[in-house]
Amino acid sequence: MQQPTDQKGKEGSKVVFNCEARGKKKITYQWLKDKLRLPEQTNSSLVFDSVKPRDFGCYSCEVRCSDGQNKSEPVKLLSRVAELDVLPREGMRFKYLTEVFQDNLQILESVAKRLQTKVPDAGGWKQVAHKYGMAEETRDSLEGSQERGESVIGYLKTAHPQLTVYEFCKYLKDIKRNDIIIALSDHFFSVAN
């Protein structure tokens, strides 16, 4: 009856996703974020009373319809995927990746190390370098280097000084690098000048 729709909300605002199904049998709901189940989110609505930057991502709802007596396997349907974008609240702005790396050497080193660490079924420094236009010859020359992560970050700082932490993290979600997103999650926004 109702599919969740894309949402944009300022940090601290209320955001609601709705999913509604009808049928003659028992209907249950299970919300997912980035294809992972959200524990205890089993209502037809997913409510964020005060949305936080780390809440950004893709949400869907798994709907099950069963006869309630376990006589047959329940019918399982997945809603459309709806994206949540979290925007800066009043007086704030998106922070640039270069600002974070300039202000915090520890985060720069952490992100660089994580970029070059292989994670099963996830992208790394090569995918980031390719996405943001690093020349193929340069990427090839980094193959055996112990500083691949630092080189890619150096390239991003020079070639993409206006890249926001938020946009970078949205791409990191695409290549399944939640470990790097976690390292950057407290640095999405900055006080507006």
Description:
With 193 residues, the protein is an alpha+beta fold. It has helices at residues 97-103, 105-116, 125-131, 136-141, 148-159, 165-174, 178-184; strands at 7-10, 15-18, 26-33, 36-37, 45-48, 57-66, 75-78, 82-87, 92-94, 189-191. The protein has seven helices and ten strands. Strand 3 (26-33) and strand 4 (36-37) form a beta hairpin. The longest helix has 12 residues, at 105-116. The protein is elongated and about 60 Å long. 23% of the residues are buried. The model has no long low-confidence stretch (mean pLDDT 93).
**Radius of gyration, taken over Cα atoms and rounded to an integer in Å:** 20 Å
Indicate the percent of residues in helices: 25-40%
Derived structural class: alpha+beta
Q: Sheet with the most strands?
A: 6 strands, mixed
Number of helices: 7
Strand content: 15-25%
Instruction: Compute the separation of the termini in Å.
Output: 45 Å
Protein name: Ig-like domain-containing protein
Domain Ig-like: 1-76
Organism: Porites evermanni
InterPro entries: DEATH-like_dom_sf (IPR011029), Ig-like_dom (IPR007110), Ig-like_dom_sf (IPR036179), Ig-like_fold (IPR013783), Ig_sub (IPR003599), Ig_sub2 (IPR003598)
